[in-house]
């Protein structure tokens, strides 16, 4: 299958060779790396993507969860074109950002106020800074397998090389371990930073009871609970926090909320966020040139009203749940050595094996075979369903999966 992949994709391979001279490994976004070389996608329409060698795929990866609208949208194109035509880079506030902030704050129970940033990474960094300065404490509790951005990623069993603060690494979904940690050093913990579903960590969904314990511990010990909803905000109108019924002190978002543009935002309780009020003595600084850039604000505003409505998010969640159930059924019926985990429209297929190497090979083969059938998912088995995916695409995908998983 790997040889077939090489033979079918000479232009993608050549593109990587060219890129290696100017970007390390030809890469500027680590998650896109794929052995022996990643596909280079040239254009797209709806949920169809086309690579430089001319193959078409139905996109079940959805920009690693950042894409929810599919790849082309007249509504977003018009919003960006209008903002562009009206002038950008205005050294000022614009009406777009107020309207956009109002729409976001109204949907998250945990957000009294928010600030815009340029990525989920930055949003998390700012939330952590706010929590440290609000509590006067230094440690951030995080979980094994967490991914909060390039600056703070905890692969399973590996330690981060770049966490810009003291952290306390705890096992995910282990309420007892969190309680023990707080009993021992609760007075030093500024915040708990947690994904309601670990995304890059393999779509591991938090137990409601675990999140409830984190809520109680942080409340009791005067620490701040931060939900990283950069991925999970799509689970409902009010994000995963509304589904779990656990309301954090701060929430970070990103990805699809920017309407296809670079985006991040962090928000939370007024008493925490108002420390950024620049009219206050000793206000926290947060002055990104592009924080409120007009193109993102316009695209985000259009997206939130058009695509991120309560009805559409609920429908997408259900589509994802149905797809997960159908995939689970395939693995059960055929006995194919795979598992699926996830929540709503974001899920991960995990290959099993008697050794990690065997599982990895099986995982890669699954992807190559799905590609041969015209379905695009991540190397690591990640699937994120977009609103552009229709029933017929799902049926085709399931047929292909049933065939290739068994071989
Ligand atoms: N948090 C989570 C849960 C994420 O999945 C990601 C991105 N994959 C980030 C934070 C970082 O966001 P960005 O890539 O926009 O910096």
From TrEMBL:
One of its GO terms (molecular function) is transaminase activity. Keywords: Aminotransferase, Pyridoxal phosphate, Transferase. The keyword DNA-binding does not apply. This is Aminotransferase class III-fold pyridoxal phosphate-dependent enzyme. Pfam families: Aminotran_3. InterPro entries: Aminotrans_3, PyrdxlP-dep_Trfase, PyrdxlP-dep_Trfase_major, PyrdxlP-dep_Trfase_small. Belongs to the class-III pyridoxal-phosphate-dependent aminotransferase family. Its cofactor is pyridoxal 5'-phosphate. The keyword Metal-binding does not apply.
